[in-house]
Write a structure and sequence with these properties.
Number of strands: 18
CATH topology: Fumarylacetoacetate hydrolase, domain 2
Radius of gyration: 18 Å
Strand content: 25-35%
Distance between the termini: 42 Å
CATH class: Alpha Beta
Number of helices: 5
CATH superfamily: Fumarylacetoacetase-like, C-terminal domain
Strand order of the largest sheet: 4-3-15-8-9-12
Oligomer: single chain
Number of domains: 1
Order of helices and strands: EEEHEEEEEEEHHEEHEEHEEEE
Shape: globular
CATH architecture: Alpha-Beta Complex
Largest sheet: 6 strands, mixed
Length: 243
Amino acid sequence: MGDVFQAPAQPRIPVRSATDEQLFFPVRRVYCVGRNFAEHAREMGAAVPTSAADRGRPVFFLKPADALVLDGVVPYPRGTRELHHEVELVVALGKDAPPGVLDPKVAMPLVFGYGIGLDLTRRDLQAAAKAKGLPWDTGKAFDHCAPVSALVPAAEVGDLAARSLSLQVNGETRQHGAFADLVWDVPEILHELSRLYALRAGDLVFMGTPAGVGPMQPGDRFLARLDNVIELQGEIIQDAHSG
């Protein structure tokens, strides 16, 4: 017995360690949260919650694990003329969740660490699907759609409520958001995800983007930061197969 072809390698994200040992985080799944900053929800034309009781349930979608970009080089994707950036906190789970729905009070020990990433979006494809009431997977899940930084252990990041994220494109600040402004914080998101999925070690959660999303073109360079803790640098390059 044997495989009919050689299985591709599992994506493994480098971990920034205080020791000389090089560690890697093997990725299982990539979950994403939509509309988790009120101002971004507003700019996308969605209803904005005015209180905790008015939040409803978060919007989730997935990206394929092999869409992660670890070297910062992003070929402009085929099939779109509107590639948009969305800078996001990335939460990395280092432990399996217990069976059943996860209590938010015990969610944080599952978190191994954090990174910074881009939820790249083919906005024209997403908008066309939304207008027809169709799923918008093609707008969110495609090759090279999830650039991500190295990961930092959670203890080095500290209290997320005191942190913020930002994105510059060609030296111009496009996005900035404080995690204190999240509609759903990390324990709440893990709780809500556990209603739908069995969370496991190796899962990543892209936590949603602040306002200021916009287009990127071949030749654009980006710099995403989680304060002064960690950064992600990269560029959009022309792909001969795009268009």
